[in-house]
Amino acid sequence: MLHVGFNTTDITVFEPGIGLMGWGIRTHRAESVHTPLAARSSVFVDGESVIGFCVVDLLVVSQGLWLAVTDRLVSDHPETGLTAANTAIVATHTHCGPSGYGHHFLINLSSPGYSAHVFDALCDRITQSLVDAWSARHPSKLRVGSVDVPASDGLAFNRSWHAYNKNPENTAVSFEDRALACDQSMTGLVVDDASTGDPRGILTWFGLHGTCVHSDRPAIHPDHKGLAAMKLEASGIHALFAQECAGDVTHNHRPDKRRGFMVGRYDDDYETAEFAADTQARHARRLLEHAPTAAAETVPLSVATSYIDFADAPADAAYTHDGRPHRTTSAVLGLTMAAGTAEGPGPLLKTPWLTKLVNGTKGRLNRLRKGTPTDPKFPLVELGRGLDGKFANLVSLRKGNIPAIDPVFGWIRKRLRAGDIADEPWVPQRLPLQLLRVGPLVIASTPFELTTTAGRRLRSTLRDTLAPHGVTHIVVSTYANAYVGYLTTYEEYQVQHYEAAYTLFGPSTLAALRTGFADLARRLTRERESTPSPAITGPPPRRVPEASFRTPPFLGPWPD
What we know:
This protein is of the alpha+beta class. The chain is built from 13 helices and 28 strands.
């Protein structure tokens, strides 16, 4: 018989003055708490089969944090049956949560530096939330459904509509109609009491960047996903609002000339976040009321999880742009990523002459780079090679002679010259891909933030294998179990705007992701529903002691 448990635990933790993660601006730091952050957990148990799913009010989940939590579950709470193979921890992507909780250098840049206090507290509280959810399990039935989130709601807009239009399957949209370039549905998993039929909780997926609250608001805040969950919790319903494919989706759709970037419906960011939360909560209530009739008390619970080395992952010809097999490359951050977006301008957009130079010389710059001539990305930093990487394909990171184009790069230069950065990749490259089946719903957990069209293609790949086996709904749960930036389609990658420049593993990354998930889908259909969760396959990430990463510690806020 199916049992489901829920828990909500406060995870509001930071050090005074620590950088808030997401906007990459040194003045965006924790000076107060506007609204607390939470970890919201659900655990599904049917016999020996167990699945854990936890949504945290953070920008991302670092791979080190996910591994630490799942290690703790195995060592200290083996009775739960929760492991790395069957437990997903996903982030709401709020840009107003603390930084400093990763074992890879890039995750800690906003802090600046690694905070053992933040990491340890998050690990403790997220672990406890999952354990408490397991302890609170109760006989339950499930319902799964989707509802429309119409463009007329004014909730979601495609911020990279020009790149979206490059995909041949899409109907081109204008700037005015970019709300039509988003997935206009919310999927929900409703958990009902098996005896009374009353709803106990809901898990929802809808892609919308956690950027209602901007970089000039120096306070801890969960943004719209956390607020939406709080609104349902006030009525006695456990609520987990997870991200779907939000890579190019935002609520910010109108310019604020005074503040210098795009903003949402209201001039007050907190009012805007409330609007976005109210809208999502309203659609979640529709799912609570109208999702299909409850399923049987026993449902298939199965998982398939694998590590893929995205520094050199195969991309099957069935999924590539030219029908030929390709491979991914070691992680490289593109130059135009430093331009940021219209809702969060980066240093290039703040330096017009540099932007003009970059845009006007892309062809000549690309002739300087080594590697595949079909890759239009000009490298800003080679993240996957550690200190053997280069800045702009010219300057060795080991020597620390990178230009201080803004305070963040200035801080990196100081840390490099001081020897504070270990000779490790700056991002994880052996990444977990995970399929969790809960009855007719399959959750594809991925560390990327996919664009709208990239998500559609991945769901199509999974549907081909899973639909004949009783799977009616598939969601792509992003910001899951690790974080390595964006993921665009091949066509969007050619444009090399922000999202494409932050697609770290090259133009074949989406094809490689589809290849990896297609293999997992075939494994999932072969798993016996009554057997324990299988082990993770593939090459595991390096398990290096925390001190060996030698990421600089947080010593205080950025200087003014």
